[in-house]
């Protein structure tokens, strides 16, 4: 029960902050994909950079256990590009579709129905996919520090430096 | 968007605070962000209403069966949080067709709804094939420096940028 309440509170905070950042709407999502308005990229990478530092501390202190999504190169690439096609049409991602509905964007409702349909469809074909695409390039739960042979903190410093460089670039370009 | 709508918060500030929420969530519940798995669970739940028993026999639903877990509550919370935020700062607007969409494809809510539905199918199929969505791979995996997060987020944006440019080709800049 506590887990469920924790999930709800975390989600409310996430939805609140995304809406405050004005990142849940179609114009912002497609604006980023058309390279015209990078608000969502600024939001997204600020969250990742901040989260990365705190999560590394938690992992190093043994307070939280890592839960690394496995690398399946074939499925990651084909699925990722397929997602990109759908994203360019709907203009919401799974999380932001709920946020968009929350701020009154009713087209997100049809998008959510589509997403549920897509999930059901995937479940239908999963047995065939698990025998084919999902077997291509299975690398397991690998991390950047692991494959680069670098300390966690060196990777974090490099990532944050690149992120800040990106922000400076975007601000200079007025995106 | 209303003409006199407030601009909201800096995306850097909202993003950094979201990073703090990510950290607290890992600390307090051991959970990392993700949103697309719960669409599988809810789809399974709906299917079960129509054909009980069938879902139990499907391999994928044995992994991600219909149940209310942390993530289902998390994604429901997004709706509530966005509603609370937009209602309290005047940015809540009932709108069936986004401005940019209307400027390219016209004001028909039916057309927009149909394409949102189709886009949703393709997007979620891709997300489940990839193993997650921007929440799971960006805010969940990249914060843990997972290689999968880097590959998938790169492909989300690469695919999205290519297809958005094709869809909006020839359209004047807004």
Quick structural summary:
The complex is a heterodimer of chains A (175) and B (174). Chain A is an all-alpha fold and 175 residues long.
Pick out its properties.
heterodimer, A: mainly alpha, 8 helices, B: mainly alpha
Give a written overview of the molecule.
- The complex is a heterodimer of chains A (175) and B (174).
- By secondary structure, chain A is mostly helical.
- Chain A is built from eight helices and two strands; from the N terminus they run H-H-H-E-H-H-H-E-H-H.
- Helices cover 74% and strands 3% of the residues of chain A.
- Chain B has 174 residues and is mostly helical.
- The relative contact order of chain B is 0.11.
- The mean pLDDT of chain B is 94.
- Classes of the chains: A mainly alpha (175), B mainly alpha (174).
- Chains A and B meet through helix 1, helix 2, helix 3, strand 1 and helix 4 of A and helix 1, helix 2, helix 3, helix 4 and helix 5 of B.
Helix content of chain A: over 70%
Give the overall pLDDT of chain A as a whole number.
97
* Percent of residues in beta strands of chain A: under 5%
Number of helices of chain A: 8
Shape descriptor of chain B? globular
Q: Beta-strand level of the residues of chain B, as a percent range?
A: under 5%
Largest protein interface? A-B, 127 and 132 residues
What coarse outline of chain A follows from CA principal-axis ratios? globular
User: In terms of per-residue confidence, which ranges of chain B show pLDDT below 50 for 5 or more consecutive residues?
Assistant: none
Radius of gyration of chain A: 18 Å
Q: In what order do the strands lie side by side in the largest sheet of chain A?
A: 1-2
Q: What letter string, H or E per element, gives the SSE order of chain B?
A: HHHHHHHH
Low-confidence stretches of chain A: none
The radius of gyration computed from the alpha-carbon positions of chain B, rounded to a whole number of angstroms, is 19 Å
Helix content of chain B: 55-70%
